[in-house]
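Predict structure. Chain length: 379.
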Amino acid sequence: MYKLLKQDGKAKRGELHTVHGVIQTPVFMNVGTVAAIKGAVSTMDLQEIGTQVELSNTYHLHVRPGDQIVKKMGGLHKFMVWDKPILTDSGGFQVFSLSSLRKIKEEGVYFSSHIDGRKIFMGPEESMQIQSNLASTIAMAFDECPSSVADRIYVQASVERTTRWLKRCKEEMARLNSLPDTINKHQMLFGINQGAVYEDIRIEHAKEIARLDLDGYAVGGLAVGETHEEMYRILDAVVPFLPLEKPTYLMGVGTPANILEAVDRGVDFFDCVYPSRNGRHGHVYTGRGKLNLFNAKYETDPRPIEEGCQCPACRHYSRAYIRHLLKAKEMLGMRLCVLHNLYFYNHMMEEIRTAIDENRYQEYKKAKLAGFEEENIKK
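Prediction complete.
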């Protein structure tokens, strides 16, 4: 159950009560695609850096180790030793990114595994069954994610099919949650709004799926090639047509600036691989922009990545030492950068929640965005 606690303009401050605990929103979900954050980050680390929700991927876990194996091990929470909420992506985005390996039909999608080439079929029912086996807190509906540059006729037909698939997902989840051997009988379902960059298609789709009274609603198919301005335009258009009293999730977004802008438009769930991916390449986030620790100017820099940061990297190590680790290709260098970046994102979400609570979100957003520009100006 979602409880809207406060609004500051369109920015929402809420709580989502789940079987695995309460999620304070706005929230950033830390992405652990195959039930682990890339960069040697453990679930104990996630607890330490203030993670509220971990996100894993249906397609990847279905392919390896197999959702039946995860079910035998007691579900994802037991398997990866994590007692807080987990959201599983439906696998739709991954299936559709395998454009050369798949074939879409009304019943679902036929495709080849990217690992061993074996033939796999996934439709709404299969996606729900896999996610039920994984026993995540929140399951995402199986949808098609059309390209942001797809033509209007294709997008319209795709969105209509996504709606039909969503209804099948809802029916199948209700059936699965009633079975005696289901691990999580309180699994939630979020639907996904699609429509590429066509405002009218997006709005109509939002109205239609809102009538299904789901546990939450995502905006999908953004941050896939369109400009930031186009993404904000679509959010401005579509978010007002999604239920205010349900969580709104912007999938796969994004940079700290993207998150600040989307919160301002009423979004309260986010996920993105940026903090871990950038961290593995020595790119770290600070309140004054992003730093590349491979740069020679940090070779003898005794300061932490960011002064005052309480992450495990900044509490103990210098930029110079972390740069040395990265240059020497020591895994610890990657790990410390990923821990810092995830902490940065999680801590920024805490600040956002406090700013909304205190009716000063606009002021906070303006100051934060100005801070990010400092490093760019210096360059």
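Summary: The CA atoms of residues 40 and 227 lie 32 Å apart.
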